Structures are given as C-alpha cells and as structure tokens.
Amino acid sequence: MAAIPLAPPAAPPARGASALPWTAGPAVAFALVQLAVVVPGSSLGWDEIVYVSQVQPGTPAAFFSAPRARGISYLAAPVAALTTSTTALRVWLALLSSGALFVALRVWRRLLPPPVLGCAGLLFAGLWVTSYYGPRAMPNLWCALGALAAAGWLLRAERPGRGGRAVAVCAGAAVAFVTVMRPVDGVWLALPLTGAALLTAGLRRPLLWAAPSVGVLAGAVPWVVEAYTSYGGLAARLARASEIQGGIGAHFAVDDHARSLVGVTLCRPCDAAWTHPWTAAWWLVLPLLVVAGTVAARRAGRGRTAAVAAAVGVCLALPYLFTVDYAAPRFLLSAYALLAVPVAEGVAAAFGVVRARARTAGRRRAAYGVLAGVIVLHAAVQAAVLLRVSERSRDRHRELAAAAAALHRLDVRRPCVLSGDEAIPLAYYTGCASRQVGGHDGSTTADRLASLGRRMPVAVITAAGAARAPEYARAWPAYELPGGYTARVAPRG
C-alpha cells in the first residue's frame, strides 16, 4: 500500500509553558463546574450502583449483566473500597476526570496551536452531558478521554522524529483502556485509527498500524475471560448482550439522540413529546461545523489532523446512531470529544477572518461580539440543561433516601432482599441485596425468593402505575412508600 506523504504543520508545535494555560484552563473549569453543580446532593444512578457495588465491601453486589464491563468499577474502587459516601466518590471521580482531560489535551499540544487546543477542550467540557457524567461512575466519558488521547498519540507517532515507537505504544495503550471500559467502543475506535495509519505509512511501519488492534485485544482479555467463566462462552455473552440492548442491528436513532439532549439521560423508549427542540440546535448544525472546521484546518496546514479527528469521531457515533434502537446522551461523548477538534479549528478560523478582513475597529468589535454572543448563548443552553438534570438527581436522592427509611421502619434491614421495580437503587439505599425473577437481571426464582422470605426480610417493590404485583407476592402485606412505591413484605416464620 502506498504511503501518503505528510505535510509539515503550518504552526510550530506548542511546547512547555506556552500550551500549559490552554490545557489546564479547560480542566480546571471542568472540575469547578462538577464540584459546584453536579456533585452536591446527587444520587447514584441505577447503572452506577451496579458498577460500584462490585467493589464496595459490605454492599451486596448487584447483578452484572452481559453487556457490562468492569473498567469503571476499577476506577471507583480506591474510594468505594473505603467508604459508602456518594459525595466522596463523586469528588474523587470529578478530580480524576478533570486530570484525565488535562492529560488528553496535553497529548495534542504538538499537533494544534494552543488557542485551538484550549477551544477544543472548552467546547467538549462545556457540554452539559460532559459535566454531568464527569463525577459519575459511568464508562462513557472515560471512553471519550481515552479515544481523544489515542487519536492524538497516533497522529504524533506518524510524524518523523525520536520517540515514535513509544508514542505508538501509548496509542495502543489508550485503545486498550477504552476497550476495558467498553469493548465495543474499543473496536470502533481501533478501526479508523488503523485505517489512518495504513493510509499514512502503508505497511512499512507495522507498529503504527498494529498498535490499535493490539490494544483492542489486550483490553478485551478481562471481558472475554469473564465470558467463559460466567456467561457460557464468548458467543453466548455477545448474544445475550445484544438481546439486552434490544437487538443490535439496523436501527435509526438519530432523532432519539436529538430528543434526549433536552436532559433525558435514557431515552428508552423515546416516545415523549419534544418540548424544547432548541436544546438540540447545536447538535443539528454540528456536521456543518465539523466540515467547515476541517476545511479551515486544511488551509492552515493541519488538514490531516482535523480530518483524522473527524473521521474517528464519526466512526464512534455510527453504532449508536444506526445500530441501537434507543438513545442516551452519554453514548456520543466519545464522538463529541474528537469532533471538538475540527469545530475548534473553525472557531479559531472565524475569529482570524474577522481580524484580517474587518476594515475598521468598530466592525471588528461588532463581528467579535456576534461570534462571542453565539458562543455565550450555546454555553447558557448547556448550563440550563445541566442545572435541570442535576436538580433532578438531587430529587432522586431524596426520594430514594425517604423510601429506604420507610423500609427500615418496616424492619426491612440487612440482611434483606428486594425485588421488583427499582429494586437495584432501593436495595443499595436500604442495604439489601437485589434479586429479580426474570428480565435482563434475572438471578433467582419465585420459589427461592419466597423461601428466603421465611428467613430474612424480603420485599417486592411496585412503582406507581405499574402492573399488579407478581402472583407469588399478591398475598403479602402491602405498604405505601414515599415516591409512589408499594412494598409487599413477605411474612416471616
């Protein structure tokens, strides 16, 4: 395969202190927003409880379904192993994610001018979904930061100079990190990175184009081993994972993702009214911004860098837009992290055009004001959504705490078992184990649950508006809980 010659960068590499403020600034702002808005009083979500309960001593581990990977549990473990405090875990993850953003941006300091680099960091960190998931025990943001670092290292490894092999190894390690977090994301990341390396160097530099694939294989080892030890083999785990996710295939979820940007953290099914379409305005024009930014970067001599970032971002978005039949804003975080690079190139070019073509100071100020106004309006929309979803998390925390207190008053205390609607979050707050007799988390039978109820507190939870309680629990005494829940407690003895 013929190699494509690389054009030298138009701007000198950003080194040392010159790039430090532009990489540290977005990371510091990211940390402050998380600590001030997202962390205080927030609840642990359903998925977070599954991941955290795996590494928290004294907390019964929730059922770990086939699609999940344990990468985020490893990141949460240093604090979760020491305390059950949600605030402590949130602070740890907020600081850790902010530090990881700083590191990922520093990878790009030899590829982009400092202002473009800082703009890309602020654009990504300024999205409500980025700030919301920064302190949460969910893998998607970590996949985004790993993907951003992997692409940057691969682009640096392509360039002539010392340390190319070490940088290529770093790219492979970043792909492995993403794969540990979410194996499918690792595969979709490795594909465009391998293609980009082959287009540049052909087969002459095997370490460069093999690093992403080796990274996927290394990162997938824990997930594959667990498939054989706990799920009946790799094929069985993949089939079960596809079933739980609604069947991986040809699905059009573009509109669902646009709807979810209003602040819906999981749009499944996504059939609610689209009440605030303006929250997705930036998302609908994102393809145009990426194209314009890539063209501007090409004129500045950085076309390949922007093109690779855009291609990787698009590849990371494709499976969630066209193969999964539901949406969650966090699914596209990896795409947003990469697409922020060409968009930042476009923003920098727009300010450059104003500076070069505005004939008078008054026109220059007016044009700058328009550009700044658009950016401020975008930031205001993101802040409004972030405040809304963060307050909803605090409401959820108060609701679950009140329901857990009511269950304690019914003498449902550890050791105990909860089943039914919202069993995983209510069990975590109550200190119980969660067991389901069917569905995605099926881990017991009705007979076993009834048998447990004769030895320890067992309750079946039904939510407001839910169908009738399961047949085996209909005769159990029923009690109303805060939040619209009903608990049917098994009679003991």
TrEMBL record:
- Positions of transmembrane segments: 115-133, 139-156, 163-181, 187-203, 208-225, 280-298, 305-322, 334-354, 366-387
Keywords, alphabetical: Membrane, Transmembrane, Transmembrane helix
- Name under which the protein is recorded: Integral membrane protein
The major lineage groups are: Bacteria, Bacillati, Actinomycetota, Actinomycetes, Kitasatosporales
